[in-house]
Amino acid sequence: MSATYRDPHAPLEERVENLLSLMTLDEKLAQLGSYWSTAFISTGTFDPDLVRQKIPHGIGQVTRIGAATGLRPRESARLMNALQKSVIEQTRLGIPIIVHEEAAGGFCHRDATVFPQAIALAATWNPERVKQVAEAIRTQMMAVGARHALAPVLDVARDPRWGRVEETYGEDPVLIGAIGTAYVQGLQGDDLAHGVAATGKHFLGYALSEGGRNWAPVHLGPRELREVYADPFATVIRNTGIATIMNSYASVDGLPCAGSPAILNDLLRDELGFTGAAVADYSSIEMLLYHHRVAATLGEAARLALQAGLDMELPLINCYGEPLKAEIEAGRLSLDVIDTAVRRVLRLKFQLGLFEQPYVDEEAASSAFQTPEQRDLARKVVAESTILLQNDGVLPLSPTLKRLAIIGPGADDARLLQGDYHYPTHLELIYASDKEPDAVGLTTPKATGEYAPGPYYTPHVTPLAGLQAALGDRVEIRYAKGCEVLGEDRSGFADAVQIARDADVAVVVVAGKSGLQRPVTVGEANDATNLDLTGVQPELIEALAATGTPLVVVVLSGRIHTLSEVAKRANALLQLFPAGEEGGNGLADILTGRVNPSGRLPVSMPRVVGQVPIYAGTRAGGDRAMFFDDYVDAPTTPLFAFGHGLSYTTFTYSNLNIQAGKTTDPIQVSLEVRNTGERAGDEVVQLYGCDLVASVARPNRILLGFARISLAPNEARTITFTVHPSRLAFYDPAMRFVTEPGAFRFSVGASSADIRLEQTITLEGETVTFKQREIVDTTVAID
After folding, report:
1. InterPro entries, per this entry (predicted)?
2. Are 267 and 301 in contact (CB under 8 A)?
3. What is the CA radius of gyration of the chain?
4. Are 614 and 638 in contact (CB under 8 A)?
């Protein structure tokens, strides 16, 4: 009779317990670890004997085929099948593997659609569009058998010095929660058996590191940690049942997240209700020894991490193998702790349906990549994420335009359209270095032969190519690079200035360079103290502005820059985050007016780096400097506020009506929005709230909800937000999560600084206690 765990009709928990009961200690420990895919390649060929030698008891995960090789989809699927077959057939219990990959701005794999970077997805303020992106990523990942994505990043990013801001969804927990929910729903689908397991990362507080430095300590009190930094995770957990969570590299108030029961068990599981598997960020367990110095040996680091609730070690076994086994044999770690972690891993594998469908169709894999529908989606996301920061009327480009100058290092360089976790940028770590270091100092086994990585691009459309295609033969287009992103070379200035002087309009695309392998300007481990545009790009803008030709400045960068001087010289200023393969077409759609701009800032844009951190949700008293409201050398306000973004049309807000009662009753906020311009367009209507008198200092303005609506000229729609009182809750002096009665101000506007309507109401009744895991999101109805 076959074992219960092999019966697809048996209840899930029975299958898990049956399989667990059959496993030896070595087999259990194997499920808690991972191995690089390229470790099984010898002389340019997959070698099943290496599987037998290196993972004789199987393995929990295989680390990155796509993000470690140059394989195309069919060959990638073939390698996955071969690995899977070797493990299933060569191990006693035949437990299938999970292949994990990166997917922040698209599947990090050769030929996969290069969607805009995560910060750009947030700039759309369009959860439905983000869900479509994640569905496309799911299709491509499943085609090659990758069933675990190390995305989305749910960190609250309020310090633009940090190099990983581009991987986040911005500064606001409610926006992050909404975009993150959509991403996970699209990736996981309705049933994990037909989806890809998502990973919420990095738990917790990672983005508020000391000095904006990657991995640096975080100093946060328990209230701020929960109300702000845990809130997006709480939202995604309750809305999606997200499959896995990844720890932060940092310590919070001295507690390294990878080894803290207070963070990974008490907060993540007990308070927020997470029930899935917690996976280690790469090398973070051994960092308890080498970086945080809270463990004296690898075994002690393993014991601390496992007891804290960290179930799986990635990207390879350094701690959860023999070092952990020694801890068990010495009696310092209970087998119950091992079993708890193994249960979570096995449960995920059963949920993914890997025991029933471990293999994929190799011949069909390539058909899931680079479809016209995927490229069309990528183009739409670029357009919806492009933010028009200022405009004196030079945009959209006039139909009578005759001569256009296109200038700048970002104008015709496909590499600058990449984010740090896009392919091939991410693989520069491997193919550009003899020592082959990856982002956390590990050594990635380097594949050779057909597996060897390289600078492989999908067909990319640069801004120059996009404008050439959009404007056709009717406009004379001249191009000059002007300068590089980095360096002091000004030799290209003369040509750039000349073509600008001869043009009706000049478009200059200045840029950053995202990546992990220096020289770059932004990306993981590439933090900065200066947020200005790099190199001589500011001088190029100044020289072009001096020609008197109307100047459109496009900032193509994953960094949040200080643009005060640039804004003074630009007739129009746009933010284009790393835009991927359709970047040029999507940008051209905005510049030509084919698409009305509707991107909104998911962050506050500082005037100078000395304002950092600067964000919309500051607590009472945090938005000004006493006694004079400002600094001696600058205002305290941002250059461009959170939620800001202009349009080619105009919208009016009217008829605000708020229905409110007791602290137990939902609040309804309704208003009318009308397109009063001559173009159709999308408006992002933002609802903010303020608890005017509370038992602790509350934020001056918190985002409660938002609605993206499309309106034809003169069309009006009524928007109704329903705000549950739990959305107003906070941790009181006794750390109870409560909504108190009293006065609340509700504000509706086009950004956190552009408030159109406002009203104060009073909630009656008693103080009500909630749980953060039970917050009810604001809903929107549009009539």
Report:
1. Cellulose_Degrad_GH3, Fn3-like, GH, Glyco_hydro_3_C, Glyco_hydro_3_C_sf, Glyco_hydro_3_N, Glyco_hydro_3_N_sf, Ig-like_fold
2. no
3. 26
4. yes
With beta carbons less than 8 A apart as the criterion, state whether 247 and 308 touch. Answer: no
- For the stretch 336-387, pLDDT in tens is 999 999 999 999 999 999 999 999 999 999 999 999 999 999 999 999 999 9
Angle between helices 583-591 and 463-471 (to 10 degrees): 50
The span from the CA of 91 to the CA of 381, in Å, is 45
Segment 360-365 long-range contacts (CB within 8 Å, at least 24 positions apart): 360/77, 360/80, 360/81, 360/142, 360/143, 360/144, 360/145, 361/77, 362/74, 362/77, 362/78, 362/81, 363/74, 364/143, 365/73, 365/74, 365/76, 365/77, 365/143, 365/144
Extract the runs of DSSP E, i.e. beta strands, from 513-660.
Answer: 551-556, 572-576, 651-659
Instruction: Note the helical H segments in 68-220.
Output: 73-90, 118-123, 127-143, 173-188
From residue 293, give the alpha-carbon distance in Å to each of 113, 254, 258, 260, 322. 41, 11, 12, 13, 20
Packing angle, helices 127-143 and 73-90, rounded to 10: 60
CB atoms within 10 A of CB 304: 24
Rounded CA-CA distance 282/312 in Å is: 10
Report the C-alpha gap between 396 and 569 in whole angstroms: 18
Over residues 194-224, the pLDDT tens digits come to: 999 999 999 999 999 999 999 999 999 999 9
DSSP codes joined into one string, 424-478:
TGGGHHHHT-SS-B-TTS-BPPPP-GGG-----------HHHHHHHHHGGGSEEE
* Token pair for 88: 């299933």
Delimit the domains of the chain by residue range: 651-782
Q: What tokens were used for 712?
A: 């034809």
Per DSSP, the three-state class of 680 is coil
User: How many other CB atoms sit within 10 Å of the CB of residue 469?
Assistant: 12
Give alpha helix (H) positions in 316-359.
322-329, 335-351
Distances (CA, A) of 479 to 279, 536, 755: 48, 18, 41
In the block, which residue shows the tokens 């009709």?
9
Report the distance separating Cα 605 and Cα 751, nearest Å: 13
CB 524 within 8 A of CB 516: yes
Instruction: Please state, in angstroms and rounded to a whole number, the distance separating the CA atoms of residues 356 and 728.
Output: 45
C-alpha to C-alpha distance for 587 and 116, rounded to whole angstroms = 12
Beta strand ranges found along 225-333 (DSSP E): 244-247, 251-252, 255-256, 277-279
CA distances from 368 to 373, 375, 460, 687, 760 (A): 10, 12, 18, 39, 52
CA-based angle 270:272:274, to the nearest 5? 80
> HSE (CB half, 13 Å, CA atoms) of 429?
24
Strand bridging mode 755-763 / 742-749: antiparallel
As a dihedral over the C-alpha atoms of residue 573, residue 577, residue 578, residue 582, rounded to 10 degrees, the angle is -70
Contact 608, 401 (CB under 8 A): no
Comparing CA positions, the residue from 758, 756, 751 lying closest to residue 602 is: 751
Taking the complete model, does pTM exceed 0.85, yes or no? yes
For domain 651-782, the CATH architecture is: Sandwich (2.60)
3-state secondary structure of 290: helix
Residue 382 in contact with residue 482, Cβ under 8 Å?
A: no
Phi, psi at residue 545, to the nearest 5°?
-65, -35
The residue whose two tokens read 């701009």 is: 597
Give the pair of three-digit tokens for residue 638: 């941002």
pLDDT (tens digit per residue) in 619-640: 998 888 888 889 999 999 999 9
CA distance 302 to 281: 14
Q: CA 554, CA 591: separation in Å to the nearest integer?
A: 10
